[in-house]
Model the fold of this input.
Amino acid sequence: MRRILLLGANGQLGSDIRSVLADDPVELVPLYRRDLDVERTDRIGPFLRELGPFNVLINCTSYHKTDECEDYAEKAFAVNALAPREMARICGDSGAVLIHFTTDYVFDGRSRTPYRETDRTSPLNVYGVSKAAGEHFIAAHHDRYFIFRVSSLFGTAGASGKGGNFVETMLRLAGGGAPIRVVDDQIMSPTHTLDIAEAIRTFVADGVTGYGIYHCSGEGECSWHDFAAEVFRQRGVKADLQPVPSSGYKTKAARPAYSVLDNSKLNGIRSMPHWTEALGRYFERKDAQTIGRGG
Ligand SMILES: NC(=O)c1ccc[n+]([C@@H]2O[C@H](COP(=O)([O-])OP(=O)(O)OC[C@H]3O[C@@H](n4cnc5c(N)ncnc54)[C@H](OP(=O)(O)O)[C@@H]3O)[C@@H](O)[C@H]2O)c1
Done:
């Protein structure tokens, strides 16, 4: 049976990968920060070797508080670049496949058409630089890797350390009744983590060998304001939603104005649903979990 190690198993994406692979004929080993703090990069090699042979390492750990990364570049580099480098080295030595995740923020947003895997990266912020560096390190140390660039995630587990996700934040704010100002000039593709997890399962189950970088995001594109409006529409929530330009909503880290990813390469293996359909499935799943908990 194939042995799969999953780092960051309690994160938003990690939780969905864990649940999607739970019934598959694989030995899944979920790993948490308490097992290994990947910021301590010197610990990664000894820790992974001690776990014994494995076929696939899935790395869902990340330091992705985009504004905070501006102040903690060393930490961003350790978690997002040096840690994946160590993982690639270990996988390179053993021949295991490495599956890693990066971001649409490796692009500068000057394009007006969806970014392809071959487009030049040119990140605008520390987070994006650290994730792009992680991509280069992996490619420099290993051949058998998949890097999935994903964007604007929402999953029922909520992003670890961010207190939920954009969908839940919007619903919480709407409950407060105050005006909700959301930027309408940053265009991206919201992505349900369950859809990414199912794509990963396809890669693992089918033994895909077309190694390299894949773009993996919800189909379609929208602004964050449009995303919020669709959340309220699907939930039947009345909210005082107001569009604002990025210039009126200053953040420490610059963000790309356009970061839509072109999924064509992935589509040859597994297609992603439109983000509005994915949002509907997210709510269905969340409601089912709430009922299951007796809520
Ligand atoms: N969220 C987004 O909107 C977004 C957008 C584009 C790309 N991405 C990328 O997608 C991937 C998955 O994101 P996500 O939203 O699922 O993230 P998440 O929910 O924040 O999960 C991150 C995971 O990493 C773990 N982690 C962080 N620092 C660690 C450390 N030093 N040592 C060990 N574990 C550590 C966290 O553990 P704890 O729970 O203990 O903190 C958590 O399990 C990441 O590569 C991210 O960069 C995310």
Q: What stands out?
A: The two ends are 38 Å apart (CA to CA). The pocket of NAP is lined by residues 8, 10-14, 33, 37-39, 60-64, 79, 101, 103, 150-153, 159-161 (CB under 6 Å). Residues 258 and 283 are 26 Å apart (CA to CA).
